[in-house]
Records
---
Amino acid sequence: GQIVYSIAEETERGASVGNIAKDLGIDAATLSARKFRMITGSSKQYFNINASTGALSVNEPIDREQLCELKSVCLLNYELVLENPLELYRMEFKVLDINDNSPSFPLSEYHINIPEFLSPGARFTLPNAQDLDEGANSVQNYTLSPDEHFYLEMQIRGDGSKYPELVLKKALDREQQATHRLVLTAKDGGKPPKSGDVPVIVTVLDTNDNAPEFEHSVYRASILENSPTGTLVIQVHATDLDEGPNGEVRYSFSNTTSADLQRMFSIHPHTGEVTVNGVLAVQRPLLEMLIEARDNGAFGMSSTAKLLVEITDVNNHGPEITITSLSSPIPEDAVPGTVIALLSILDKDPGENGKVTCQISENLPFQLKPSLQNYYSLVTSELLDRELISEYNITITAMDLGSPPLTTQKTVWVQISDVNDNPPVFSADAFDVFVEENNPLGAFLYQVSASDPDMGENGRVSYMLRNSTVAGSALTSFLSMNLANGSIYAKRAFDFEQLRSFHFQVEAKDNGSPALSAAITVNVYISDQNDNAPAILYPTSQNGSVAVEVVPRLADEDYLVTKVVADDEDNAQNAWLSYHLTHSSDSTLFQLSPHTGELRTTRSMRSTDFLKHKVVVVVRDHGDPPLSSTVTVGILLADTLPQALPDFDDSGEPPPLLNATNIYLIVSLACVSFIFVVFIFFLAIVRL
């Protein structure tokens, strides 16, 4: 928005101008909270705003003539910037002129030489008064002190400007009065009016009755503002009808031409060539000078012509980029269209040379949007991600439309602040942990690790075990976890034979608000140790007695006496069993298969073999170190199962040589042999 105020110059400090909050429809109570500020290109702060009421008052009295010089309209431009949300208002102050300056003349007195022989009606140019006020407060009329020989008349130049001329009313007589003292008074149109006086001293001469005359009353020329010294602007020419020295013309700038212009330009006294003499450091596009042509008579006569020089602008000012407001850092979750900065871009050149285009790189998530006149807003055009890019150096390029164009660049550093938009991420989809049974209490098992690309507290990860049960017991009775680094420790010793594996979940949570989390499954595999000796399932003994196996008295070779059956609760090689015969009462009679545990006879039984035998079998696993168990087996040679088993605690005794059984066998064998011999003998007799 824009609002215009009018204020008279020299208004005293503290005077009220208006109420900016009421005029713009802003709640005055929010001015301080919204960090209001007034921005102006002026070197002084002429106005104040009351932060509580929004009242606009004068801070510094304004001197219109000092501020705007000869401009017909004097304007002060301010911008009011408010934040949260960002708003910009343009304020324009029109400084009204008051009649605070009196007309003045460049010189303290003026001298005019007039030949005595001039006829009435001769005219002489009088100096123009200068009044810094404008309009009606500037010079309006001139008056001349009463004199019988002169009167005042106003003349109009070709451009419409007025100037006073002294007109001879009555012929002069030098012998009667050689000098006439007049007073020229300039009055302005103020209320009350102000005036300024200057003495005009007229000296009556006897010679040179023709003044030089210019070909034109107004000369016009144009020149580039960067023209070097010595550049020809224009050549003026005046003629004098007198002859000899009285007709020789010399050119110079009039005393009413400002000293600054006389330093910028020079005029050749003989040729009338006006050339550039210095840098054309002016802000006005049209310069006005008065050129005087004076003859070389004993009492030189002069005339003046106006020279109007138009300064043609060249593109010698690059754009100026000013950062009026900047918000940095900005959160990475800022929505597209968020205003980051407000830029003011100006070019002091007029016309096309002062028109500016502005742009930034296309590969950035930002864009420039035109705001008020000469203002641009830098806004986000895409979503931001601090984890990808944490800061941006945005180069703003401003280029005018001059030929050749001038370019200015300014870099804006924008930081991106973090928001908690990333949950922790584990380094794997699942973790497998291998632990040996019989571990010590508090043993370190594993360390899970999760990363969070956010910053600070948003990226600080803590770990915890999710509630679950293992083998009917709470997980926390088995494990503990370091919340800070994710280390997992055992709270009890594991037993492979009771629990071979289990799984649980670990949750990683960041410290953001709200907190984000992720979970992962940890599989625990318990590896076996050789902590169990083989258990012999068969043959078994009761109350410490020896297990007894009955074998037929005349059993054949490879007869299966018994099979030793054993089991080992361990796993893998710790449960691989082998069978060994460590003791036998007759080492030639029995053999043991190391893999199956089968105990067999190595030969047929003999009548001379002991009736009782005892063997000791060792069952050994393949652990490191190996564990073993033994079993003692008593072997009884009998055809029938006896009612009472013999005692196998001793190693067995050899049977007596002549017992009832042996005698019976011997008698039976003898009888059979005798019958066989008789039968053979009988057959032989029969054949013979």
---
Amino acid sequence: MAKAFFRLQKFLRRTQFLLFFLTAAYLMAGSLLLLQRTRLVIQQGSRGTSTNQALPVPDGMAGIVDPRTLQNPRPGPRLLVGMDALQEPALDQRHSPRWLVSRNSELRQLRRRWFHRFISDQEPMQTAGFKAMKHTAEHKGTYMGCFSDDSRERTLKGAVFYDLRKMTVSHCQEACAERAYTYAGLAYGAECYCGNKLPAAASKPEECNSECKGEKGSVCGGVNRLSVYRVEELRAGARRRRNVIYRGCFRAPENLTDTFPASLIQPNLTVEMCSEFCSKKEFPLAVIRGRECYCGYPTGRFSLHDGADGLLCSGMHNASSAAEGKYCLVYQTPVQDTRCTDRKFLTTKSKVFVALSSFPGAGNTWARHLIEHATGYYTGSYYFDGALYNKGFKGEKDHWRSRRTICVKTHESGKTEIEMFDSAILLIRNPYKSLMAEFNRKYAGHLGYATDRNWKSKEWPDFVNSYASWWASHVLDWLKYGKRLLVVHYEDLKQSLIPKLREMVEFLNVTVTEDRLLCVENNRDGNFKRSGAKQKDFEPFTQEMKDLINRYILTVDEALRGRNFSGLPREYVPR
């Protein structure tokens, strides 16, 4: 019996060793295969970067587009012979009319690789909600205690900032001080709230137990709890950094007292005195007429849309001048207009799945900012961008098919990707501007500029070769496969924000008030202006690039008119 047991034990040991050896061999073989495939994909991607495909253009188009043809385009797109964008001669036998499908597939894969590489490289560099500020280990403000925070009726609602990665007590304090607030409150370890009134309901100190995302060992509130600091001591130093913006001269409304909630009459009134008074009252506008100072918001009665000649406001501080008090000076205070800053997810799943589609660099993030503040609902994204999530785009982490967001950002094209959506807002921007914006984003993030070295590298011509055709094919695909489209030109949105934004909101089947739209206009830039040194009179496009892009512009213009949409703005050409 013992002998049989010994043989069985010996057999099992050999079997165990054999299984271990086979498993190791299997894993090694799999690893080698994976490495081989990865190398193949990289090689194919590098080859795809420098190739280009033809787009349809009208007959006889051999050089730069004549801008007059945008006014009278010929009906029916024709196929231009295939050509290499910048270097090779015509290759009329190489490509068929089916180039669009294969080209889009290749470029989508290229885009995804660049996008994920960029996110991993750039995310640690992004800071949301604030301009870059010097971090200080000591908290200069006076700690007032832990307070309850009711999201439905906040006391500190003068300004709201998010930094879901690098929030510190000092960041919040300095941001509130620069905007002339008295108190700074932190919650959830990442949210900053400013105001001039101390919250009424105090909480136990231990209930503020969330560590600051960007400062270990420091407390930044808790769940529905605010760590509140008084920052008045910082305001004197921050005052010289505050930005009071002159909005212009306007005709005064008939009844200023009814139009503006707060007022002050002061002999020898100055702009600084009026701005400081309105800031303490938490109003974004300071209005001066003689010795009178009024505070309020842009409203239907006083929309700031019809400015008057500045000469009518000259000598405003002289009581007998300024056209007998019919005109007033308007200034933007450092205070944020908070009538449109509240946002949330949809309470029930949307029945209509809406895309916010654009070519990269066409202003999609800015459009999301406008839509979120106009509707009060978060927007989603087909991708995940940690930098945008840190800026308060909470829909970034929500699954793009959850239907809990008002619309979903996408740069995708192609039949399958487009037909997933029931309708779409198609945002189009001048391809010259789009290409430069996307190249800047690729090398310097959402708010930076690429360096001279980047622009002069070989990657810029390769980038134009690959992305210029994508700009056109993206629009053509959505025109072909989109079920219900609203075409919005970035330039029109920038120039006529409220009419265009109202059109977009109605397309999303949301009803908003005029005052909310005026609030969005007052906060139109958000945190999306690029910072850093911008090159003046910089022209990165060669003549060959211009010839190529102008052909694509004409093609897209003709396709839009063929679908009964308005054509591209005239400013797109010539270059």
---
Amino acid sequence: FLFVPAVEVKIEVVIPEKERSKEEMSPNGKASPLIYKVNGTARHYHLEEHPIASNPYHNPKDVVEASVCHVKDLENGQMREVDLGCGKALLIKESGEFHAVGHKCPHYGAPLVKGVLSKGRVRCPWHGACFNIGTGDIEDFPGLDSLPRFQVKIEKEKVYIRASKQALQTQRRTKMMAKCISLSNHNLSSTNVLIIGAGAAGLVCAETLRQEGFSDRIVMCTMDRHLPYDRPKLSKSMDSHPEQIALRPKEFFCTYDIEVLTEMQVAAVDIKNKIAVFKDGFKMEYNKLLIATGNTPKALSCKGKEVENVFNIRTPEDANRVVKLATSKNVVIVGASFLGMEVAAYLAERAHSVSLVELEEVPFKKFFGERVGRAVMKMFESNRVKFYMQTEVSELREQEGKLKEVVLKSGKVLRADVCVVGVGAVPATGFLKQSGINIDSKGFIVVNKMMQTSIPGVFAAGDAVAFPLALRNNKKVNVPHWQMAHMHGRIAALNMLAHGMEISTVPYLWTAMFGKSIRYAGHGEGFDDVVIQGDLDELKFVAFYTK
């Protein structure tokens, strides 16, 4: 990292390693759709017991111990991937001490040896997740699981690692969690914590509460028909099925008593009486509330917008349907947003033609600036994507009810069998207008550094909030990144439990298109200069956004 006072944002574009193909794999994904609704049966659970003993490996057959190097083989600040025979570990030396943890990031399996080691943490080279080298705990996101930690001992100048074979093979560890000690059958319309929304923010909030020993009732509700899933894959890996991209299997929710009400929409919140009113009339009392409803995609307002085969990609079914309709056909994408560009990249090899319509003169202009935007555009053009810039859609024409042509305001008529709309989104907060919760002029829920709204006991997280960003002098910003939603959920949960924890994370996002990965750290809104190091034409560069 280069520290320059004017610098606010670092972007890195790299040609991915051979391991990059693994990045598109599902992180786990054995789940199937589930409607886990309350059945009225009283259940009594206790905190899951993990006895802390001098030997944490209960089954000797599951344990392997191996000499991995000489003590002088590693300098301070160095990491090395070592093989124990039945699996690998990451050996780290910092401040004269050796540590050993899992060698793969539990998010998408990136090799952590290629990451960055600093101040007792290792950061994933692909998507920026951070792990404590002493405990293996995840401390920055994305991802849900921590790293397994292995015992290290020094004998006769040799370094030995003792590890569980199972941990070496799985390379992930779910932190110890509480279970619910009393799911009352007396009042099913009452919960201690209600979470509206089942994206990354909602799920991390629920998991953090359980990790911190919270053993009362937690209910998540979502308009979706699926359990929480890896939403970024909807545009990056469009033929993924729901069970492949589930963040947790259904058994996980049952084990830790996190109740998920699917296809349930909250229509209003009564702050005074602490009641959420659902669209179907059902009412639920709560003690603490998290609002993590995300955003709603903007629709086209042109003539013919109701024509069949026009999509906002919101669900796995949408993404799957687009791939099916687009194969060997003509695709028009409206909006050179992250979603629009990722969809264009994914469909370029599959479709007969891909056309992209955008109001700006280059893609990503407001976000990456003109020079970077133009370099990305050139890469797309060399992959058969045709751009129609500085224009918009005036009409969608149909034949027998299905899309046939997209007419542009410039007069150009594009053949189209399927159209994907990615022209931005608005926060899904309309149901809060009469609630008394402070919402800004753009519809974002205003929160403080502890993710608390203007109402005590009501928290908000994810894409629908404006929060104070430490690195921009606590300016209230909206950062709709996957990583940030995870952190919001964690901070909200800790403050529901009165930990007094303030958010201080650096925003981070990534996108992958045509085998190239763009990574962006910071918040460059309002930049007036871009300092570029490297080769833009080769897409091997770092860009600093300054003001």
